[in-house]
Fold each of these.
Amino acid sequence: MPKQSKPPKLSKTEQELKTLRGKYETAMLLFDSIPDPVFTVDEQMRITSFNRAAAELSGFSAKEAQGKKCQQIFQSNRWNGTCMLKQCIKERKILVGEELKLKNAQGKEIDAVANAAAIIDATGKLLGGIEIIRDISAELEKQRKLLEQHVRLDEYHQTSMNLALAVSECFQVLEQAKSGNLEARVSPETLASDDELMAGLGKALNNTLEHLQNQHMRVDEYHEMSMNLAISLSECFQVLMDVRHGKLDTRVSESVTKSDDELMSSLGKAINDTIETQAELIQRQQYAIKELATTVNYFTIERRGAPLF
């Protein structure tokens, strides 16, 4: 069996080159493993290295980016006069946490935070610069949604306050009517409310009182109607008192809502519709608050590691 020839012995220079090549490949492997986009440039701002994350963010491969100026790849809004990497190279310093906007190969705008520094060798020679980018578009979107939820909660609160004031006014008008003052009326502000049900309740109440004030009838008929009206008004008064104390499952009975007196029937239905609207509003508020708490917890855990709620 013929003897296998041994590989030629490498010279010292070749061994050193092989070792350097291995170190370079290891360094590039580590460079590509960095999760944040990282790239380096020479003194003329031409890209000399471009890791995998930078390629994914920009939409350009490392081969496409090599040798191009970084502005051609990232299209930063900070290039003209305020480019942080250019400033670091010029002044041989480090800049941290600079916010900027980029555009990828498809033209999509990206919100980012960047850290940059000059690259200086052991002899003090300037070699170029390095920049590390972090995409914060998702974080800003979460903040925007949180802000929108805060705005919606403020709107719900304002609507609830307006509804409470309108219900209180109707309550006072009914109280005066119960005491015999049929000239009391719901204010024009409530009648002109954007809440159609609340405005309808005020109009129905005013129409009922005007109807009673202007109607002429025999004493016995008037007495019977007054008794029925007093009972119906008393029931409406009691229902509004219950609502005022937070009891939103109370309703005006069918004896009022299905009364032969159309105005009294309309008043009862309007009160019931208003209560149902208020109950639905509170349910939406509770759901919005729960969603906000969940989102804030998620955002806080992601940014700080501990929930607020």
Amino acid sequence: MNRRSFFSMLGLDSHEREMANTSGSMPERAALATGLEPYTKPLTLGDAYHLLRRISFAPTVQLATQLVGKSADEAVELLLGTGKELPQATPPTWIDATDENPGGADPITKNGIEGKWRGYFGGLLRWWADIMRTESTPLSEKLTLFWSGHFTSEFTFDAAYMPPALLYRQNVLIRSFRLGNFQQFAKDITLNGAMVVYLGGILNTKKSPNENYARELMELYTCGIGNYSEGDVKEAARVLTGWKVGQFNDEPARNGMFETYFSAADHDTGSKQVLGRSIIARDSDTNTEFLVKSQEIDKLIDIIFEIRADAVAQFISRKLYRYFVYSNPSVDDSAIVMQMATLFKDSNFEIRPLMAALLKSAHFYDEANVGVQIKTPAEYVVGIARQLGKTFASDAGNAMTAMEQTPMDPPNVAGWEGYRRWVSTKTYPNRRSFATAMLASMTDAEVVALAKQFPDNTDADKSATALELYFLPKAVSAERHKFYVEEVLLQKQPVYEWSSIMNDTPTAARNIKLLLTTFIKAPDFHLC
């Protein structure tokens, strides 16, 4: 995407376009020589902002200040934590509520149940968005969102709804594995209730095999296209037969509500062969939930990770790279991805060492990788709230949906295409409207307090610079900075008047809001 087409797409007026042309690079970038070697310089404020924009939804002044002067190693260790930490958020009240199967109910009952689920799902989105907004160290939610878009499930699919209680439990599972072992992650997600329902596992029987999950397990979740055959899909589907989920209070739930259970009568007990490896047949005595899980489900995953280890490592490394570093699919990222894949494979598919190495690397902090990602709707919505230090001015889930990203309800099993698709003539007005509403929700005192977080806030030049660095991903040109200071922040008043203006809360708030409004209109406000 060239600079002119990007600006045209945003519908900027002539003055905005002129100022935008002095901004940093648009999301285009050549292949780089830097790799996974450690970044050895102490983190600057700009480095800290860059790291926080990528590993969380936006920097906060408090977190960024805490990182300045630390090594990349120290900062990343602090931000990632062990991966075992969980947010201290009270779960939604309805997570254990049960309903009858609306599919077999009369129309009034069906509509009532589904309407209730829509309300629950909206609440689930608000619950998660607030965790994203308020999280501090260690940071968990950006990784949780990434994996939620990898191991996909949808709230609305096949003209029906997923019980939100299943999606809540899947969200908890994904968060717990965000930095864990990917091989074990694949095993656990395979029998997760939401996944079994979403990709037809509950319909997969020895008499009528359903190949959906078997195919996506290899194509989208582990090794990628070209690393399996149609025969492998068919055999894997046979391995996966016989699993059900306790979804409704008028149907079996042998392991409890919203849990997966095994139906021995529906399992194909014959021998199978996947990727050239055999899974032995079983008799009625060994056709049990424990043995089928350990000797067939787990073995299926182990076979994929053993036979296609290189493919798995490269496939996942590339997805992580494009999500956290640079998402342009046309750029040659093979050199850095191969380094990542080698580390991932050598660490037995542990996610944390891979993420830590990437976020500590010279490549990650390369200037060419700063400010080149287009913010996802989640980054945009949550990020503004985090940076302004405000609660959401409107429903965060609805706001993300208006920008074409509804967490836990992707458009299809492949998730969101992302990159250039995030900003369009349809979504850009919704972005700008949300940001404007967030800014309008601030009191004069809150606006001035925002500016006073930064040192030297009574100096107009330094105050504008601090706000530019905080809200925009790269330093702006001298010409653009001059415009921000003289025309916007000072409103053409002499520079020495700023210290007096800061003592006049209504006037200071008005001028600072004008500056932030100008930022919101800038194309690079959509970059991170």
